Amino acid sequence: MPGVTPSAAARYRRAEAAARLKTTERKVSPAGTRHRPNPGTKGRIPLNKQQPIARQAPTPGEPTAPELRVGVVGIGWAGQQHLKAYHGLEGVSIVSLAGMEQELRDSLQAGYSIPNAFADWKDMLEHGGLDAVSVAVPTFLHAPIAIAALERGIHVLSEKPIARNAAEGQAMVDAAREAGRVLDVAFNHRRRGDIKALKEVIDHGGLGRPYYAKASWLRRSGIPTLGSWFTNPELAGGGPLADIGVHVLDFALHLLGEPKVVAVSAATHSELGPQGRGGGSRFSAQASSHAFEVEDFASAFLRLEDGATLLVEASWAAYRETDDQLDFTVYGTDGGAELRVHGAPFPPVGKLRVFTDRDGESADYLPPVLPGRAHDAVVEDFVTAVRGGEQVWAKHDGSLALYRAQIIDACYQSALEQREVRL
Fold first, then answer.
1. Which residues contact 398 (CB under 8 A, 6 or more apart)?
2. What is the Cα–Cα distance from 280 to 272, expressed in whole angstroms?
3. Alpha helices in 27-141 (DSSP H)
4. pLDDT tier at 233, thresholds 50, 70, 90
5. CA-CA-CA-CA torsion sign (74, 75, 76, 78)
6. CB proximity list for 109: less than 8 A, separation 6 or greater
7. Phi and psi for 333 in degrees, rounded to 5?
8. What are the two backbone dihedrals, phi and then psi, of residue 95, each rounded to the nearest 5 degrees?
9. What are the CA-CA distances from residue 191 to residues 51, 213, 289, 378 (Å)?
10. Residue 320: what pLDDT?
11. Which of 90, 174, 238, 300 has the fewest CB neighbours in a 10 Å radius?
């Protein structure tokens, strides 16, 4: 494995072997199939729709941090979000770019004045001169690239999910801890302004003790690319549960204060994808290089340590209204709340309502909400962690993203075996 140190290669091979075993077990569950693609998150878009943004000006009188040299692996939609975000930060230089599509790679290199560009990520790491790297590529490549970078002393920001499964995710976390470097995973939806506003309400006791929540991301025709790596278990690791469902799981647990999940009961269904339906004009490429071997709908019931429960739903394809829906409902001892976001792509602010009483009378209200900053905030937080030094680095080892992967694995096991699985 060129460009990967022996220990990184051994670690990845062990994780890959575990991934293959789990993939074989997961291909078809009695209720359907499962594996996880990504909605359009890594699809390509024209450069003229992703123009570099203005850099942040340094605060007068503030000491200037040493220049941070970053590289980006992956030049689809997600990679372009990282490029735009890095370009907007003072003291950050994008020095390397890696991606297979030459025309798009050349265009991005010119647009962001990046000195080095490579077709192969291994060549980019071998070239050196990097302090940090973003990994925005298909899921099966997250672990090998991240581990190779971490073992070179390079901080890593990976797109979600952390990896195809928890075994690979654990190998990435181990590499981050051994190297003493940052491993962050991009969960951009928790940075939405409406989710931040609801988090503030919950954290300040506005709902009392939450005891039930339901969160979902539902599409009617949103299979990312029919017949691509997205629908191949060996490459993607899962269907909508592991792709967009991991976003839902992340922001739900984040809103609820990161409770421990003690048991899951899940079901997966693969009804439309195998018939060539559910791709839609935004996502489908009616290729057939891979069979549809993942689920197109999943639901999971999670029991939490404090007695509360959480229901998670994720679909790429289902006969429902046309627009995508992102939502979160929570019931607490002193109030409840509903967040509804509709659209494709999602608007920056959804409809957030809080339900409560005051002196026995309804006191429902609409909290003020500002647009979130999505990937800009993800990248900025990553850069802040990298600049924070070793004490901060130890707190950014990918553990939170790994925990999400462990829960997703348990959900898939539950669906396969048709029983509740305890964590």
1. 158, 162, 169, 172, 173, 176, 183, 184, 185
2. 12
3. 77-87, 102-111, 121-127
4. confident
5. positive
6. 97, 117
7. -70, -20
8. -105, -15
9. 22, 19, 36, 8
10. 97
11. 90
Residue 183 pairs in a beta bridge with: 156, 397
Residues 6 or more apart whose CB falls under 8 angstroms from that of 400 comprise: 185, 258
- Nearest-CA neighbor of 187 among 224, 161, 212? 161
The Cα 28–Cα 164 span in angstroms is: 16
pLDDT of residue 4: 43
DSSP letter, residue 231:
G
- Per DSSP, the three-state class of 148 is helix
Instruction: Kindly list the distances between the CA atom of residue 61 and the CA atoms of 26, 57, 64, 192, 332, in Å, as whole numbers in the listed order.
Output: 57, 12, 9, 31, 46
State how far the Cα of 80 lies from the Cα of 42, in Å rounded to an integer. 9
The pLDDT of residue 135: 98
194: left (phi over 0), alpha (psi -120 to 50) or beta: alpha
Average of per-residue pLDDT values in the chain: 88
Sign of the dihedral through C-alpha 268, 350, 403, 168: positive
415 to 32, 247, 297, 299: CA distances (angstroms): 8, 19, 12, 9
Residues sharing a CB contact under 8 Å with residue 288, sequence separation 6 or more, in sequence order: 226, 227
Confidence bin at 226 (pLDDT 50/70/90): confident
pTM over 0.85: yes
* Overall average pLDDT of the 95-117 stretch: 98
